[in-house]
Amino acid sequence: MGETEQRPTAGSRLGAQENAGISTLEHGQKPPMTPPGKLVSIKIQMLDDTQETFDIPQRAPGKVLHDAVCNHLNLVEGDYFGLEFPDHKKMMVWLDLLKPVMKQIRRPKHVVVKFVVKFFPPDHAQLQEELTRYLFALQVKQDLAQGRLTCNDTSTALLLSHIVQSEIGDFDETIDREHLAKNKYIPHQEALEDKIMEFHRNHMGQTPAESDFQLLEIARRLEMYGIRLHPAKDREGTKINLAVANTGILVFQGHTKINAFNWAKVRKLSFKRKRFLIKLRPDVNSSFQDTLEFLMASRDFCKSFWKICVEHHAFFRLFEEPKPKPKPVLFSRGSSFRFSGRTQKQVLDYVKEGGHKKVQFERKHSKIHSIRSLTAQPSEQHTEVPKQSARAYGDNNDAAAVQSCRQGKELKASTEDTGQHKSPSLKKSPKEGRKVDGAVVSTVEEEEEPAKDRMQQNRPQSQQPSTGSLTGSPHLSELSINSQGGPSVANMTLSPNLSPDAKQSSPLVSPLLNDPSCIRADDEEEVKRKRFPTEKAYFMAKEVATTERTYLKDLEVITSWFQSAVSKEDCMPETLKNLIFSNFEPLHKFHTGFLKEIEQRLVLWEGRSNAQIKGDYQRIGDVMLKNIQSMKQLTVHLRKHNEILMELENGIKNSRKLETFCRDFELQKVCYLPLNTFLLRPLHRLMHYKQIMERLCKHYPPSHIDFRDSRAALAEISEMVAQLHGNMIKMENFQKLHELKKDLIGMDNLVIPGREFIRLGSLSKLSGKGLQQRMFFLFNDILLYTSRGLTASNQFKVHGHLPLYGMTMEESEEEWGVPHCLTLRGQHQSIVVAASTRAEMDKWTEDIQMAIDLAEKSSGPAPELLASSPPDNKSPDETTVDQESEDDLSASRTSLERQSPHRGNTTVHVCWHRNTSVSMIDFSVAVEKILSLSVTVPPYLLD
């Protein structure tokens, strides 16, 4: 009688093993006893904007509150999240997990603590749990609403379309307009509603879990994803913003990133009053060292940002939690702050090693979605979001439950009713459910292959009693406190009581949406019947569709965005306009229809219509054969692309206005690659078709119904590729020369007839001051060596060249005592270079020898090749001021002096920073391996 009735959590009703999140204690250790005392109520605002109240002891550290929230959500990967609150100066700070909560939150009655994402990993695929990805999706939704995640209108509409798909299901114009009218995701949403609905139309059949996955896939590629700006000033007093990410510390001017300091380059972070200091590691070939200084608004603001940086570095870079430093006997110097919790590696290892039980179940985002998405495929990726209501229904009360489901009213149940009634399972599984407080809980699983069933049945089902008492109306899930991860009942009671202003039911967890009695038996059979196929051929067809969608967007950059911009500016000759758009518009029109055919075939393949009775639809070869044969009529347009590329570059060369226009267009986010790269996409797409058909023919046995069409399609596309391969090689070389021209200073005539690019990369050149890093560029006639300049665009200045005609090469490690060393002897000078590894040396040796042989076979260097050489031919021992200026000035650089309009993300800059090299063959291989950003193929199905 005197015992408190314990109610099952959402996870326990679904058969999930109760856990206390992730403990940072070593194996065998017990958590420290929580000091007894008066309980204090803390209000926590969840990511779905609902509020929960947690009662904790006054002396409890922040970790107790953080663990309580994670247990409340049954969240395993809780280390990615944090608690944020306004301090006494109204500045948002993170809750320190080691310090007592009451020493940080002075007036808990007047403070609402926010549970938000704290650490954003570089790839959301690292998030193992579906619940974690769902919470990340809620964070993205919140950042869009608050204006933190800024992007162009197209990206915004695409993000919102995935959010709408996850909430209301498949596209319906009437329901979409009603939903968008009631829900304002961003300010001024009305202007984007048509575009949101247009994108939503393409997400047919996408489950909520898939929508979350696609939402995070798009969001993580945005520059402002996970970024929290902190205002500051540099040494010159220029207003900037600092931010910290998984890669390091970022510098923004407005919302444009102008610099980044990778963790590998940072030696020390510190602050002195209002000054935030970044000490960088010296370069390999320099004894100088950078110390960057930024001025922030106050000491507290500066210290808060320093703490965030320390936590991000520890979480993403360390293998385990740093151990606390021993306390000094007499005097303490500096801050004693340290990162508390598990690192990302520890979290990944914990989840991968099976430290929890994975349960599959359906989630219902809203009433509309629960009715419309019964035919959608439940996600098979880890655990879905536990949004089951805490209230249970009686087994004999089906009629009342169905009636309430129709009326849309919430059932009220007291704690006494909870103990008397049983919670029915959504779906019977092969495993028996376990009892929790008198309620039989069954796991919700799909009927999979027998082997998979046996594997799941052999998993241990440890049962752990809950020690937390619950009152009030739950929102995301009930609070569950595991006996291993939290304080004992004798010392602590966590009761999440709802505040008066938060008693309305959360839209995410209405009991009506999760009541199994609302799901008919035929609906359950429909869910079981309409599962995604698992054949390898299906995923190849899916790859065609997703990459085709991306390719169509690439074409739209030319046919839509570039054409629209050109029409507004009188900067391009009419002949050039007609040449470009008359050859690209037919391609866009054809591939739009091609994509529709592929998507229709996939719908039939996935079984989302009554086409099963019509017979043969589970193949893709016939669609590919039909369209590849039609595509051959477009060969005349594809042959013109080489001419388009050359004419466009000539127009840019002869017209300053057109050059400025194209440069400004490339800086827009819609043009996410150099403009001439999009001109190469149609020819590269043919290579991708050929690869897919080769894999498909290799997969099918000769007796397969689709083998003949697939083989015929492969023959057709192979013929097209062979016809256009010469044009593609010329265009790739021409495009690469123009790309390098933008990165080089002192080589005006780099692009000339007959010159071919072979390799570029970083080598160390031996000079009077020792080995110094230089960028080398190998062509079929000349070898250039450069160093990175101190200009605003970080271009590379040409310091010298060696003609390949008459050059000799020999290894000279013993002569100079430098590993991986080569001596290159030209007709007038010699240089000594060293590679970083033996493999790099072998690559350079092979390519240089090949280029020398080709030069020898020719009749000697052409006059125009020699005329393009830089004027300053320096001997190997010359070391002038401009050569070494980079080292001499490195200590005085500031953040703004390094800004680049292209943000230093070209191939040359990547090779410089990574001290490696790439060849033209590498670029060709990379093109063949390109996949769509949205393609999701199971790893075990890839070749």
Automatic annotation (TrEMBL):
GO terms for cellular component: cytosol; dendritic spine; filopodium; plasma membrane. It is a peripheral membrane protein. Residues 407-420 have a biased composition (Basic and acidic residues). Pfam families: FA (PF08736), FERM_C (PF09380), FERM_M (PF00373), FERM_N (PF09379), RhoGEF (PF00621), SOS1_NGEF_PH (PF22697). Signal peptide: none annotated. Its main location: membrane. Residues 879-889 have a biased composition (Acidic residues). One of its GO terms (molecular function) is guanyl-nucleotide exchange factor activity. Residues 457-508 have a biased composition (Polar residues). It is found in: Cell membrane; Cell projection, Dendrite; Cell projection, Dendritic spine; Cell projection, Filopodium. InterPro entries: Band_41_domain, DBL_dom_sf, DH_dom, Ez/rad/moesin-like, FA, FARP1/FARP2/FRMD7_FERM_C, FERM/acyl-CoA-bd_prot_sf, FERM_2. Keywords: Cell membrane, Cell projection, Cytoplasm, Developmental protein, Guanine-nucleotide releasing factor, Membrane, Repeat, Synapse, Synaptosome. Residues 374-517, 860-905 are annotated as: Disordered. PANTHER family: FERM DOMAIN CONTAINING PROTEIN, FERM, ARHGEF AND PLECKSTRIN DOMAIN-CONTAINING PROTEIN 1. This is FERM, ARHGEF and pleckstrin domain-containing protein 1.
